[in-house]
Write a structure and sequence with these properties.
This protein is of the alpha+beta class. It contains eight helices and five strands; from the N terminus they run αααααααβββββα. A five-stranded antiparallel β-sheet has the order 1-2-3-4-5.
């Protein structure tokens, strides 16, 4: 597997590995590094065996993410961090739209690399944390052909129903995903406001979907 293809699929791998899991009760009792290790292995197994995922089938990928991933992601925190200070002024309806369009954008951006994801393995670096910590970083190395690539997860410990460690950001080669999008979104918000950002994301997703449909017909 070429290094570029590996880099392209890593964010998707991180999304899938957040939740291809057994019952949430098990996840609530697991240490964060053990949780990421188990889910990453399950994600690799599915990526390398599911024909729909390998083909970049967005409907199949969305089905997997909705059913198995979202329970292990603090996606509201991920979206609010990407939007930045403007999130506090957004209405509930605007926040819901932002989360929906952001998720669609992430899935579409990284789904196409799945056909290249073959013969992956991983290792987890020793984690530095204290038992009382509520936020931690779990560092992993993903191995394909070529040099290993670092993929890190930032997790927060959540209370209440569905309690346990949840991911709200991830890092590929020193670049945090949420930080990258925050820079892009900030420019849109400054120029057009929250509704302008929603419109831009919606249009981008529609354009991507139209491109997919055209490719499938061809």
């Amino acid at each position: 597997m070429k290094r570029r293809s590996l880099l392209q699929c890593l964010p998707f791998l991180s999304l899938v590995s957040l939740g291809l899991a057994s019952p949430l009760a098990q996840a609530a009792d697991e240490a964060p590094d053990a949780l990421i290790g188990r889910l990453t292995q399950e994600a690799i197994d599915i990526i390398q065996s599911d024909k729909g995922v390998q083909a970049g089938d967005l409907a199949r990928i969305k089905e997997l993410v909705d059913q198995k991933v979202m329970p292990h992601v603090d996606f509201q925190r991920m979206t609010s961090s990407a939007v930045g200070p403007a999130w506090r002024q957004a209405t509930p309806e605007q926040r819901a739209r932002l989360q929906a369009e952001f998720k669609t954008l992430l899935l579409r951006t990284y789904s196409g690399a799945m056909s290249q994801a073959k013969n992956l393995s991983f290792s987890i670096k020793p984690m530095r944390s204290a038992p009382e910590d509520k936020e931690v970083i779990v560092r992993t190395l993903i191995k394909g052909r070529g040099d290993p690539v670092q993929l890190d997860y930032r997790l927060v410990k959540t209370p209440g129903i569905g309690a346990g460690w949840k991911v709200y950001n991830f890092n590929v080669l020193g670049v945090w995903l949420v930080d990258t999008y925050r820079s892009q979104f900030s420019q849109e918000i400054n120029a057009k406001g929250i509704d302008g950002l929603i419109a831009t994301l919606t249009e981008r997703n529609k354009s991507n979907a139209a491109g997919d449909a055209k490719s499938n017909k061809g």
